[in-house]
Amino acid sequence: MIELRGVSKTVQSGDRALTILHPLDLSVPAGQSLSIVGPSGSGKSTLLGLIAGLDTPSTGRILIGGTDITVLDEDQLARLRGARIGFVFQFFHLIPSLTALENVMVPLEIAGVGDVSATARRLLADVGLTDRGHHYPSQLSGGEQQRVAIARALANDPPILLADEPTGNLDSTNGRHVIELLVDVNRRRGTTLMLVTHDRELAGCTDVTLSMRDGRTERAATPDAALEPAGAAAV
């Protein structure tokens, strides 16, 4: 379960305060897939970064599996992310000097997982890259690089997977393949999935769509477009 209680984010811009995210209550049950859509600057990525513990809210509490992450120090946050959260970025963030297999092995080695190579190969097979493990990122297409990034994010079998514009650098075909892969992970593993996307058609692949504008939620909708009142973001 992911739970936000009165979470907001305000930053100083020159001599005035700029509210990026207005106070928000949000509940995401374990195993649900949720997409967050909206125009640039609507607060989508800020919301995802707060949930990941990569940023600190100005107000409110964020609970991950019952743990209030807003009171954790950096070391505690790092341990929680390593154990409970996988993160997929728009720009892949693969290490260019390592092969696809070695990129997936990195978090496994940090976690002290046994038989690191075999586990990494299985993860690459899960994302359809059985024969590409020996290739470097520069030798892979954008879609392949993103699939390596997904395999890496799943290395420690996290119960939560967060993806920030995972299709932003991909063409429409590869973008759909990546979204389908993420949704398949959600359904096959029971992983809670939250993804930010600008593509409302792709967002329709998830259980619930949360729309944002100007730092506020507009609606929460199921795939059949059942709407909730504005501000009611418990999904």
**Residue-averaged pLDDT, rounded?**
88
CATH topology: Rossmann fold
**Cα-atom Rg, whole angstroms?**
18 Å
Number of strands: 10
Write out the CATH superfamily name.
Answer: P-loop containing nucleotide triphosphate hydrolases
% residues in beta strands:
25-35%
Major sheet attributes:
6 strands, mixed
Q: Unreliable segments (pLDDT under 50, ≥5 consecutive)?
A: 223-232
Q: Give helix % range.
A: 25-40%
- The figure for the number of domains is 1
Q: What is the N-to-C order of secondary-structure elements (H for helix, E for strand)?
A: EEEHEEHEHHHEHEHEE
**Oligomerization category of the chains in this entry:** single chain
* Cα end-to-end separation: 11 Å
Highest CATH level, the class? Alpha Beta
